[in-house]
Write a structure and sequence with these properties.
2 domains; globular
Length: 212
Amino acid sequence: MLRILEAEFSYSKSSLMLSYSIAVVFLIAALLWDFVDIFGFTSHTTINYFIFMGILGSQIDKEKRYRLYTPLPVLQRTVPMMDLMYVGLCHAGMVILWIVFLMIGYDHISARTVWGLLSLNGFILSLIVMFIIHTHLGFFDTKLYNRSVYAMILVVIAAMATLQYFGTFARLMGFLTRQLSMPSGAIALNALALVLSYWSIVLFTRRKSYLA
């Protein structure tokens, strides 16, 4: 299992180092010149993470890690579990930067801020796992999958347009924002991340191609 985790870091170490270097530089600048609040800083680290780890990292990888696992005597479900552990470790580093920003840049930390950050943590992890699920689903019925993805995108756009037309979009976003700064929102989003993680493991074990 350790060899699998080492392979995860080996294939993305360049993207990982670049991503964290940019995040640390931004952290220092934000603390020195005070031009963003904590949620502005977390937005930067999130975008940074997705660009360098989610997009560039996956393009460099192209599932070469999975082919490396061929000679290893590991259970099939061990591979997606190591993927999730790798994601968790990489994201944990960004969370540490959030904590540093809070401890140095804030004199007083409110409960709403803490719950908001916990909600954001659950949201980011859920989003990352959804990208992993998206990749695994691509190895099932490709045509049906592509159609369903386009259909879901159109449904989301139509729903947002409908809410905006009837003037309820802003109220809905206000309600969701309030919930995310409360225990209920934080618990719900982190629970969602756990459920999605479970399904990512199930989908990986049922892929038509294990080592694509």
